[in-house]
Amino acid sequence: MSDSEKIVSLKSARNKAKEPVKEEKTQSNEPIYCSFCGRPNTQVAKMVQGPGVNICSECTMIAVQYLILEDRLPSGEAQKILDIFWSKIK
After folding, report:
1. Which of 10, 17, 82, 89 lies 20 to 30 Å from 56, alpha-carbon distance?
2. What is the pLDDT of residues 1-19, one digit of tens each?
3. Largest CA distance in the chain
């Protein structure tokens, strides 16, 4: 998988209901950095781009894990997803 295939862009998601927006394709070789941990897309599994912010798959899973565990009742399915993700990252 190339580095550009690892980037998912949500920049235009907000504007879709308002007006059509041209899709931007990132073809440059410049890395995209996670706004939370600072790692480039070349060092993470996936990167999601939003309007003015980026988040890597690892930071996303940390946030999801926090939200699930904050309720102190993670469902069996949610725990399986977290376990699978973290086992593949290591």
Report:
1. 17
2. 676 666 767 665 555 545 4
3. 43
The structure's pTM equals 0.59
29-71 confidence digits (pLDDT tens): 889 999 999 999 999 999 999 999 999 999 998 888 887 777 6
- What is the Cα–Cα distance from 6 to 54, expressed in whole angstroms? 12
Which helix (H) or strand (E) is 47 found in, with range? strand 47-50
Residues 6+ apart with CB under 8 A from 89: 45, 58
Angle at 51 (CA atoms; ends 50, 55), nearest 5 degrees: 30
Query: What is the spatial distance between Cα 5 and Cα 32, in angstroms, rounded to a whole number?
Result: 12
Q: Residue 55's closest CA among 29, 32, 25, 22?
A: 32
Amino acid (one-letter) located at 14: R
